[in-house]
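Hi Q.,

Before the meeting this afternoon, I wanted you to have the flavin-adenine dinucleotide prediction in hand. No need to reply - just skim if you have a minute. The sequence and ligand are here:
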Amino acid sequence: MFDVLIVGGGLAGLVNAIRLGRQGFQVAVFEQNTYPFHRVCGEYISNETLSFFRSDLKINPFDFGAIPITHFKLTSPTGNFLEMRLDLGGFGISRFTLDNILYETAQEHGVTFFTGTRIVEVGKANEIYFVKTNKSKKYNSKFIIGTFGKRSELDKKLQRSFFRKRSPYVAVKYHIRTNLHPDNQIALHNFADGYCGISRIEDDKFCFCYLTSRKNLRAAGNIQNLESQILYRNPFLRKLFTESEFLHDKPKVINEISFAPKTQHEQGILMCGDSAGMITPLCGNGMSIAIHSAKILSDILPNFLEGNLSEKEVSQNYTKEWRKVFAHRLQFGRTIQQFFGHPLLSEILIGSAKKIPPFARLLVRQSHGNPF
Ligand SMILES: Cc1cc2nc3c(=O)[nH]c(=O)nc-3n(C[C@H](O)[C@H](O)[C@H](O)COP(=O)(O)OP(=O)(O)OC[C@H]3O[C@@H](n4cnc5c(N)ncnc54)[C@H](O)[C@@H]3O)c2cc1C
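Predicted structure with the ligand bound:
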């Protein structure tokens, strides 16, 4: 019997685990992969998380090779571009490294891990929550946190409404070495029906990651054709693809990515990170939202575990706070996503932002939050 079972050991799951574990609660995390492992992610984290990393988690990402990022570049499929300084900025570090640091920190705080273990069922019987694993084991707890990411079989089992619609996006990620891109800049290069981000991470590497529609990939036939026929039309991307060193044999690819609104609780389980709602990657803010939402939840949940609030009150307080802090940003991300990957609209967006710099600053600010 645990106090809390956390399903999914990404950023949201690990931050919840650290903050509840260090308060002495019995916490277990179930993660289907084994740390350390690579994920599809742009690996740029907004500085709104920096003071939280340092003062709350006692982790300084720069001790692990994170690289400061202070500038932004946006290009259109024809090569028109805009460059600007970022007000808040961020840093680059691979998820391979970052998630592993958090995993080790959680272990130091007494959290139990079941890695290489997939949860196939979650539920509640006789006032006790339970999870069942793919290894036919069952574990009980007073509470379950759902941090299983953008889309999981568990969403289907819980009959979450967003799961009924197919998700039209696929994403591809590489790590590369190149001297074509400055260390302190994150760039978003548009191409027909998609966009590709590039920014520095540790060990002289760059994360090079793009999002496009399944339709685009299907029309091209395969990833290689998609890149050479569509992405190469953007002159910046052509140069990066043809003149950089690619560090892995093949890219990491995911599909079925959805930015549809989600609920923050389902059958008593509170959702956190992408499980509660995913912001479009062009905002470069999903990781901060995962971390921030975990802070909010792990601040509220001890009230239930210590008997000061009912389960219903905890759920209401968390949902209210989540919506207040994140709902606007997710909606903004969905709106602005329509401009990206559309050749004419992205051209208009870059033209207007170049002519009116405060407009560009406003757009970046809308997608970002404040330090927490
Ligand atoms: C193409 C792309 C680029 C992005 N770029 C950026 C960026 O540059 N900056 C940024 O801030 N954000 C970015 N994001 C968003 C960011 O990656 C996510 O918002 C963030 O990873 C969310 O963290 P999480 O903990 O909620 O989920 P995740 O990190 O996805 O973790 C969920 C975990 O749950 C596990 N899991 C799922 N189901 C089960 C199960 N049944 N049993 C056990 N384990 C399970 C998974 O294996 C996974 O490890 C990007 C996203 C995409 C798709």
